[in-house]
């Protein structure tokens, strides 16, 4: 006999194996207080993601003066290293041609992004000049931005002609 086994290597029929018995009663959840708080949070995160809470979102801000109408479409939420578009539509609301409109993008806001491309090309630091806007005509300024710094970034966009100035305030949230 080798190591308590028969000649064929099997255990003898008379040897009984003592296995632990299953406990009596119903199973209970045994969680700590922090685990009871954390469990609903872990369930809530995928549910919120399904409803788009963590997804990208674009928002719009508008303002008007007697001469100008300004609409800004901006990324309200975007992810880190994701490129989104900021669009500024400037409309001449008068019955005469406006010779010059200056669109000033907030440099503190744009410094939070990388690969910032503005069309038409800025004449100064994130300042675009639009010339000869006909009555009722709308001109577009586009900036492509790529999220580089996390959290909320606020901006102030200024559009001016002569003595009139229109300002739109907005913010973007960059998710990790």
Describe it:
A hairpin with a 3-residue loop joins strand 2 (68-79) and strand 3. The mean pLDDT is 89. The chain has a domain at 57-175: Sandwich (Immunoglobulin-like). With 176 residues, it is mainly beta. It has 2 helices and 9 strands; from the N terminus they run αββββαβββββ. Strands 1, 2, 3, 4, 5, 6, 7, 8 and 9 form a 9-stranded mixed β-sheet that branches.
Features:
single chain, 176 residues, mainly beta, Immunoglobulin-like, 9-stranded mixed beta sheet, 2 helices, 9 strands, 12% helix, 48% strand, elongated
The percentage helix is 10-25%
CATH class of one domain: Mainly Beta
Q: Name the CATH homologous superfamily of one domain.
A: Immunoglobulins
User: In percent, how much strand structure appears in the residues?
Assistant: over 45%
Whole-Å distance between the termini? 66 Å
- How would you characterize the largest beta sheet? 9 strands, mixed
Low-confidence stretches: none
CATH topology-level name of one domain: Immunoglobulin-like
Please state the second-level CATH architecture of one domain: Sandwich
Morphology: elongated
Order of helices and strands: HEEEEHEEEEE
Mean pLDDT rating: 89
How many helices does DSSP assign? 2
| Helix vs. strand class | mainly beta
Number of strands: 9
Rg (CA only): 33 Å
Q: Gist?
A:
The protein is mostly beta strands and 176 residues long. It contains 2 helices and 9 strands; from the N terminus they run H-E-E-E-E-H-E-E-E-E-E. Strands 1, 2, 3, 4, 5, 6, 7, 8 and 9 form a 9-stranded mixed beta sheet that branches.
